[in-house]
């Protein structure tokens, strides 16, 4: 996981250096983090509930014009969903390294709308059979997992950036591909098509 995060971070700075060469002074590096509400969307899965988690990472905002900029990011994002089997509730937790590439349009000073693709790399997966107590977590080996290791999303959001570099944001990420492998048992038996659905509410600071 450390190597993956390092590779993603190197990729972020490689992309930003290409865009920022002509205007290094106005480009801003920053940190961000916040609260996640995650679930899946599926017509085949039945009922599922949201999970609460967090996201944390780095970004670089690169102005293209006075009102438009691009913002590559590298985030660690806790996601997943909850479901019920009989009377038992089970939490399926999936952590990703997410790499969004956002286009930001400032509508007025400070207030912006953003949109862009996001690419996710699964780094950890576990099932919690006792979400309200200790001892129910089972880590899933990647070779035994029924979930894909790569996920593609479209991210839409809005936010406000203050003059001191502090910012507030809200973003919705919806998956574009089935999170289950084509040859997984659950996909073969039930033909499930499930996609990630994540709300992110965050704070950031630009240097």
TrEMBL record:
It comes from Gelidibacter salicanalis. Pfam families: OMP_b-brl_2. The keyword Signal applies. The keyword Signal applies. Residues 19-180 form the Outer membrane protein beta-barrel domain. This is PorT family protein. Keywords: Signal. The lineage of its organism: Bacteria, Pseudomonadati, Bacteroidota, Flavobacteriia, Flavobacteriales. Residues 1-20 form the signal peptide.
């Amino acid at each position: 996981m450390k190597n993956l995060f390092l590779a993603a971070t190197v990729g972020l700075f490689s992309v930003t250096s290409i865009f920022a060469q002509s205007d290094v002074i106005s480009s801003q590096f920053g940190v961000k983090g916040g609260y996640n509400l995650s679930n899946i969307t599926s017509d085949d899965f039945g009922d599922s509930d949201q999970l609460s988690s967090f996201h944390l990472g780095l970004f670089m905002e690169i102005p293209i014009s006075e009102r438009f900029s691009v913002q590559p990011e590298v985030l660690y994002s806790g996601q997943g969903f909850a479901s019920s089997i009989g009377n038992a509730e089970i939490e399926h937790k999936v952590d990703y390294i997410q790499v969004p590439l956002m286009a930001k349009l400032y509508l007025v000073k400070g207030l912006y709308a953003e949109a862009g693709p996001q690419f996710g790399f699964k780094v950890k997966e576990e099932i919690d059979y006792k979400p309200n107590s200790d001892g129910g977590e089972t880590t899933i080996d990647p070779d035994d997992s029924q979930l894909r290791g790569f996920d593609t999303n479209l991210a839409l959001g809005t936010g406000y950036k203050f003059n001191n570099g502090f910012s507030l944001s809200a973003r919705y990420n919806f998956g574009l591909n089935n999170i289950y492998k084509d040859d997984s048992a659950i996909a073969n038996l039930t033909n499930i098509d499930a996609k990630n659905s994540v709300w992110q509410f965050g704070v950031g600071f630009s240097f």
